[in-house]
Amino acid sequence: MTDQAAETATTNPVVSNFIRSRIDEDCAHKTYGRKVATRFPPEPNGFLHFGHAKSIFLNFGLAQDYLAQCPQSLCNLRFDDTNPTKEETEYVDAIREDVAWLGFDTSGREYYASDYFERLYQCAEQLVHAGLAYVDSQDSESLRATRGTLTEPGTNSPYRARSIEENLDLFRRMRAGEFADGAHILRAKIDMAAPNMNLRDPAIYRIRHAHHHRTGDAWCIYPMYDFAHCVSDAIEGITHSLCTLEFTDHRPLYEWFLDRLAELGAFNRPLPQQIEFSRLNLTYVVLSKRKLIQLVNDGHVDGWNDPRLPTLKGARRRGFTPTGFKLFADRIGISKSDSLIDYQVLEDCMREDLNERAERRVAVLNPLKLVLTNFPENHIEPCFAPNHPHHAELGKREIPLSRELWIEREDFMIEPTKGFFRLTPGKEVRLRYGYIIKCTGFDRDESGQVTQVYGEYDADTKSGTPGSETRKVKGNIHWLSCAHSVPAEIRFYDRLFRTAAPGGRQEGDAPDFERDFLTDINPNAKQIQVGRVEQALAHCPAESCYQFERNGYFVADQFDHTPGKPIFNRTVTLRDSWSKN
Ligand code: ATP
Ligand code: MG
């Protein structure tokens, strides 16, 4: 566990849920001895997203939390790589990195379903030997046609009555590569009339002459998910196999396979149990791998680690934090019914963590020059700003004040609107950590755009000096000395979609209208501007996060920020600005 994960594990009290209650019961009855074994089983066919974070905190979190009570508790990272055509090593490495980033050390606990291919094959042979599986030679169309529907039973395959010897012979020849893809499948012999369609003689193995990213060309038959998953759980001694709700109807099959295999001596009881929980659904994002791939491949974003994407790689680059995700996972909890979580809940968790973690700095994002005409030329007045308002131990730093300053363009208005208390001709404002100044004039170009503002400072009002607070002004604006700040590229990121349910129905849509989720993309979700930052920020390490006072939370870009060429990404604004839209 990293320090950060350890810190969150101890600061957040554990809230119970139905999975913990089930585990508590198993612990009380010593069902599995002194062990709670879970696994996180991603298919390495894409990058992890926010939904996976929920599953990671659940699975690894349980193993961690029960360790004191059940010292053999563990959580495996299992690459569920039984589908040869879609999987790649690149994803395996990325997944491992993401899990580590969230704070979980998987060294010594990494497994691959493909490592069990031989064992899986042997289990399948055992089922054939016992008359519990058969080779079906119908084509895919007949297989579909004889499966029945939700209201009609299926019909038995003409091959269902094959002898055990014939099935064994065919299955072995399938493995040996004698047949083309689709010529045969191995099926469990359960019940073609079962009300649960998953029990209508489901496929166990199919022929796929395809290269596998780990086993190469050693196999040309590959196990189906429902078979591979429960057997992998049993091989690893998993006690509680947690999956999302859409697998509820697969549970009888999970149990059928393991019960039969236990009866045949392949596994000892107690067997792993499958428990379902609701998947994470979030407003304003899409969490399906298919849609994420489309966004990347069609160039709507700049790659898998684009800060606008809800991938963990994107989140990291955006400046979201592992502790923020942990807070989020705890806050949304675990339930048995599907729900839609407001994106704001996630952002609030990030704000909460960053508010604590991020040191304060000054940045002027949209600079406008202010000249203090009564400020001595060449004089530099040191001003001091606390690095963190809640952590005095982090100290203060010097911000030099001089005659020429940058202020935020939006902090000046020629004719103030109601409630505008910042800089405006003839009025006073405080330069944060500095002096009270009065606006004495401004210049404009031909287009009417303000190009420079003039002011005079009051030398008796410096923040922190005796009597400085006696004169009150309403506005308090941030600034940077022109000579003591540096330009920085600021990338403003916002929500990738304009609508809470991308691709969902909207008012005014015709009844048969199908909205493409791509039409809901927010074209302004990425904007780049050149601002000014404190000099020292040009040399902060990549991934350092800061609160730019009054402006939000920002992070030095993980890849593009280099010494002397500062680049910051906006992680999140200080307050939610979407709820009023
Ligand atoms: P997708 O639907 O995006 O393709 P998946 O379920 O196919 O995702 P896997 O790699 O198979 O992706 O998922 C690994 C684990 O993460 C599974 O146990 C799965 O239940 C869990 N998981 C995936 N998406 C979510 C989600 N939105 N919320 C919670 N858990 C999820
Ligand atoms: Mg899956």
In the sheet with the most strands, the strands line up as 12-25-26-27-23-24-13
> What is the CATH topology of the domain at 282-357 and 491-581?
Ribosomal Protein L25, Chain P
Fraction of residues in helix: 25-40%
Strand content is 15-25%
Shape: elongated
The unreliable regions are 1-10
Rg from C-alpha positions?
31 Å
- Our count of helices gives 13
CATH architecture of the domain at 282-357 and 491-581: Beta Barrel
Report the CATH superfamily of the domain at 282-357 and 491-581.
Answer: Ribosomal Protein L25, Chain P
Ligand species: adenosine-5'-triphosphate, magnesium ion
Main sheet: strands, sense, barrel: 7 strands, mixed
Mean pLDDT: 95
The count of DSSP E runs of length 2 or more, i.e. the number of strands, is 27
